[in-house]
Design goal:
Layout (H helix, E strand, L loop, with lengths): L3 H15 L23 E8 L10 E7 L19 E7 L5 E2 L12 H5 L13 E9 L4 E10 L8 E7 L2 E9 L7 E5 L8 E8 L15 H5 L22 E2 L8 E9 L10 E6 L13 E6 L7 E2 L1 E6 L14 E7 L5 E2 L12 H4 L14 E9 L6 E7 L9 E8 L2 E11 L6 E5 L7 E8 L7 E2 L5 E11 L6 E9 L11 E6 L10 E6 L7 E7 L5 E2 L9 H6 L7 E9 L6 E3 L8 E5 L7 E11 L2 E14 L6 E5 L5 E2 L2 E2 L2 E8 L5 E2 L7 E9 L4 E2 L2 E4 L12 E7 L9 E7 L7 E7 L4 E3 L10 H5 L8 E8 L7 E8 L7 E4 L1 E2 L7 E2 L2 E7 L2 E6 L9 E6 L7 E3 L11 E6 L4 E4 L3 E2 L2 H10 L1
Parallel strand pairs: 45-60
Antiparallel strand pairs: 1-2, 2-10, 3-9, 3-12, 4-11, 5-6, 5-10, 6-7, 7-8, 8-9, 12-13, 14-16, 15-25, 16-24, 17-23, 17-26, 18-25, 19-20, 19-24, 20-21, 21-22, 22-23, 26-27, 28-29, 29-40, 30-37, 30-42, 31-41, 32-33, 32-34, 32-40, 34-35, 35-36, 36-37, 38-39, 42-43, 42-44, 45-46, 46-56, 47-55, ...
């Protein structure tokens, strides 16, 4: 065989004179008598495995033959010339067929300097770094070179391993990368091969076990290889004394699927056509997967063992490794399913500042490092993979949520030259909040251990259960071998904060401006401790005298109230909710998100009015739509005190439990809430219920200020119509007028003069209290009618005046005021009736602290008249005595004259 020294001269002469690359021409010229270099390509590829056992350690052999110009002259081996000189070669291995670049140890890896020094005395790579053998046939050199393949020290970057050899005279490197853009199999690249050699054929074998004795006669020294090594004396590898055979190549652990090796090539003439010049070789299917062991296990530990607290998780998946070349590689893990125990749930507080990583940012299916924002990171990861010099470090990032698919994740590892980007999923039960993680189709690599550390602290992604105890995380790991899955449970314990519980939330409430009689926003807040049961029901009773100006505010009703798409004019306030545990819960709304709103609604659940609270469920990257909670507003007809009764508060939204740490309501419409005119001590009361059925009744003190500065100047007129003579039963009309911005009436007592006696004989049909409460008073119990005009409403309140049974000698006089059908508010001021010197006196002892503009009371006369004239009304002026008391303590006594129809009576006498 010709020595390399002779070949060196031939190569130099060829490079200077005859072997320059031909110019590129059109591919169709291949059909001409003289084919063109564009006909360059791969003629055939063959590949084989010395064993097809799953998880076995085969010698992997392959052969590549280039297309040859039929018009060229045969070389010494009878081989014709290729169409052009090969520049780049790419070998794509099937998934699961892998090599361990560290099987020889760092000390046995050949350095680039050692490889380059092959023709120097004592130079070249140590035979302990040899992992195979390769035969190269070059047209120009008329020689076949049988060369050792050496495991090199990798250069870094995205090169996970490097193999070196001497191609003719030229040190050549084969760089191995991970095919991150598809199935994470290995890709080997030869770049910028010698143009002078003109590769015709390549045959290579990578040894399954490099230190096996069967390869001892193939271990050529550098000097032997320089002279054309075919077979060496049987020599063991240069290795440490305690070294033992270890496997380099390992078969896939997946059976029943075709395996294909793809080879691509480009020429120096057309270097950009690498992807166009491809050929494939089929390998035999892997067998005996059913013999592979598969026994992964899981350990899980919360970073916080306190109840109802934010927590991370430390998770470790361990997969037993094979030990020795005579043992099969265990089945590789394909799918990972981990179900956290019920009670562990998503922490809403984790959404604060949370971001997502898009496919463009993660560079999915690209051999490029991910550029995910730090705010999208949920966990740190480490992967121990057989063959890597250290653990592969990475992270788990939140992906962009989709409708109905909120918690998608990326498992990313850009390390040691690999670019792993696996899509995963956190499935959250919409009813229970249980979290189940899924990562499918993991790469077919010898995974030994996976460590996942979900971040801890106040923004940790999970919440611990509300109760102490032992919990089990369930796992199911599915192998690529299609064998039975590994199923089991990993215990966890929550053992801190076990003495918590109870339900004693606190209430704070008040007007932002407590000035008596002023319009002012009214704010209240419910707060609870982390250890307490969650808030489920909310009823609020405002202090007496706090009223609302409904005039000019449209109602949100019907479908609009159900959906929360209310007219802007019906907005009366907003709400803020603190969701989550710990000192930094999630406050909704977040800055930059849609605002919350409270709207004035129409009748609801038998109440005359309602509140429609709309809370956009938006946090971080999540938008779960609007949550609408309605509250019926009930008005006490005796005191006009308002109580709101909310529908049950949402406890879980799209699988995310809502933990109410605080609920704030701000009724901030500029002309809505109106302060009382009484500065007496009052209370805001709440009736709260928990998810467990417990009840709490916190209160908050309330007191208006500057009541004494309010004026009090009521005006009252009384008119009698009908007979003016003695014994007549006249109709009575009383008209009250109140100037604006003064104190409200607290009580009024009207004593008619002795010209008007009580007509006991006309107290006939009386409505009982039971009938009155059921709105079933007989019509005969109606003795008058009243109209009240107030600035609080657009329409007057009006209704009949009843005689209602009481514990006094005479029945009460009850004014049943009610709004129109669009505002069916009821107010029922009741007057005690008695006599003073035989004259009738009506005393409204408790009047709600609400502003009045005008009140007109009309009592019937004749047979339904409750008063009778004791004298001729026209003979003298008769005055009533009316005593008013205001809610700010001021009083006023009026002596209005009873105006009678005396002119009409005189005219009738003259006619007679």
């Amino acid at each position: 065989m010709i020595s390399r020294a002779v070949v060196l001269f031939a190569l130099a002469f060829c490079a200077l004179a005859f072997c320059a690359p031909a110019p590129a021409v059109a591919a169709e010229e291949c059909e001409l008598p003289r084919p063109a270099p564009s006909c360059f390509g791969i003629e055939s590829v063959e590949a084989s495995l010395s064993t097809t056992k799953a998880g076995g350690h085969p010698d992997f052999s392959f052969a590549v033959s280039m297309k040859r110009d039929p018009l060229s002259e045969p070389n010494v081996f009878g081989l014709k010339d290729s169409y052009a000189a090969t520049r780049d070669l790419r070998f794509e291995l099937p998934p699961g067929l892998i090599g361990d670049p560290n099987v020889l140890g760092v000390s046995q890896q050949c350095t680039a300097q050692e490889l380059i020094s092959y023709n120097q005395s004592g130079g070249g790579c140590p035979n302990g770094s040899q992992i195979g053998i390769s035969t190269i046939t070059a047209y120009t050199l008329d020689q076949r070179f049988r060369e050792p393949l050496y495991m090199m020290a990798p250069p870094g970057g995205d090169v996970v391993a490097r193999v070196g050899t001497i191609a003719g005279l030229y040190p050549t490197f084969v760089d191995l990368r991970v095919r991150s853009e598809s199935d994470y199999s290995l890709v080997a690249d030869v770049t910028d091969a010698s143009a002078a050699a003109k590769l015709i054929e390549l045959e290579s074998t990578l040894w399954g076990v490099p230190f096996a004795e069967s390869h001892d006669t193939e271990r050529c020294t550098p000097s032997e290889a320089f002279l054309g090594c075919v077979e060496s004396p049987a020599r063991p590898p240069d290795s440490p004394p305690d070294a033992r055979p270890l496997a380099f190549m390992t078969n896939p652990t997946r059976c029943g699927v075709p395996l294909t090796m793809t080879v691509s090539a480009s020429s120096w003439v057309e270097p950009d056509r690498l992807e166009e010049n491809q050929a494939e070789a089929s390998l035999p299917e892997i067998t005996e997967c059913n013999r592979l062991p598969f026994g992964p296990s899981l350990t899980v530990a919360p970073t916080n063992r306190h109840t109802s607290a934010p927590t991370g998780l430390d998770m470790t998946i361990r997969l037993p490794a094979s030990d020795g070349v005579g043992v099969l590689e265990p089945a590789q893990i394909r799918d990972i399913h981990i179900d956290l125990p019920k009670g562990f749930s998503i922490n809403p507080g984790a959404a604060e500042g949370l971001d997502v990583c898009s496919p463009a940012q993660v560079h999915f299916k690209e051999r490029v490092a991910a550029e995910c924002p730090d705010a999208a990171k949920m966990a740190s990861t480490e992967f121990e993979v057989g063959g890597l010099p250290r653990r592969l470090k990475g992270a788990i990032y939140l992906r962009e949520p989709e409708q109905g698919n909120l918690f998608r994740i990326w498992v990313v590892a850009d390390d040691l030259g690999a670019h792993v980007k696996l899509p995963g999923q956190l499935n959250v039960d919409r009813q229970t909040g249980q979290v189940k993680s899924v990562v499918l189709d993991n790469p077919q690599v010898p995974l030994r251990e996976v460590k996942i550390e979900f971040k801890s602290g106040f923004r940790a992604p999970l919440l611990t259960p509300a109760s102490c105890g032992d919990y089990l995380a369930h796992y199911e790991f599915i192998p690529w071998s299609d064998g039975p899955p590994a199923v089991g449970d990993a215990p966890m314990r929550i053992n801190e904060g076990c003495t918590g519980g109870g339900f004693s939330p606190e209430l704070s409430a008040g007007s932002t401006d407590a000035s008596a009689g002023a319009h002012s926003p009214f704010v209240f807040e419910i707060s609870r401790k982390d250890s307490e049961a969650n808030l489920a029901g909310l009823n609020i009773t405002l202090p007496r005298g706090i009223s609302a100006t409904f005039a000019g505010i449209p109602h949100c009703e019907g479908a609009a109230a159900q959906s929360g798409v209310c007219p802007p004019g019906s907005r009366i306030g907003s709400t803020t909710v603190a969701d989550g545990s710990g000192p930094n819960p999630l406050w909704v709304p977040q800055p930059g998100k849609d605002p919350t709103a409270i709207y004035l609604g129409g009748p609801y659940k038998g109440a005359p009015l309602s509140i429609v609270a709309v809370v956009p469920a938006q946090a971080g990257p999540f938008d779960l739509g609007d949550e609408v909670v309605r509250s019926a507003i009930y008005v006490d007809p005796e005191t006009a005190q308002a109580t709101t009764k909310a529908d049950p508060l949402p406890q879980i939204i799209e699988g995310i439990p809502i933990t109410y740490k605080a609920v704030q309501v701000n009724l901030d419409h500029s002309r809505f809430m109106l302060n009382p005119t009484s500065c007496a001590q009052k209370q805001t009361r709440a009736n709260l219920t928990s998810t467990g059925g417990a009840s709490a009744d916190p209160t908050a003190s309330y007191r208006a200020v500057n009541c004494a500065g309010l004026s009090f100047k009521p005006k009252l007129g009384i008119k009698l119509a009908g007979g003016t003579h003695r014994g007549a039963h006249p109709r009575l009309t009383a008209t009250l007028k109140m100037p604006p911005a003064g104190a409200n009436i607290a009580s009024v007592s009207t004593a008619l003069p002795d010209s008007e006696f009580v007509e006991n004989a006309h107290f006939k049909t009386i409505c009982t209290r039971v009938q009155f409460a059921a709105h079933q008073c007989p019509s005969g119990s109606i003795y008058g009618r009243a109209v009240a005009i107030t600035p609080l409403f657009d329409h007057p309140l009006e209704g009949p005046v009843y005689l209602r049974s009481s514990n006094n000698p005479l029945p009460d006089l009850v004014v049943a005021l009610k709004g129109p059908p669009s505002l069916p508010i009821e107010v029922n001021p009741a007057a005690k009736i008695d006599t003073v010197n035989g004259g009738l006196r009506a005393s409204f002892e408790t009047i709600p602290d609400a502003p009045l503009t005008k009140v007109v009371l009309r009592m019937q006369g004749g047979t339904k008249g409750l008063i009778v004239n004791s004298t001729n009304l026209c003979a003298a002026t008769h005055r009533a005595t009316v005593k008013f008391k205001a809610h700010n303590g001021k009083t006023s006594t009026l002596r209005p004259a009873l105006r009678a129809s005396c002119k009409k009576a005189a005219h009738k006498r003259q006619k007679r």
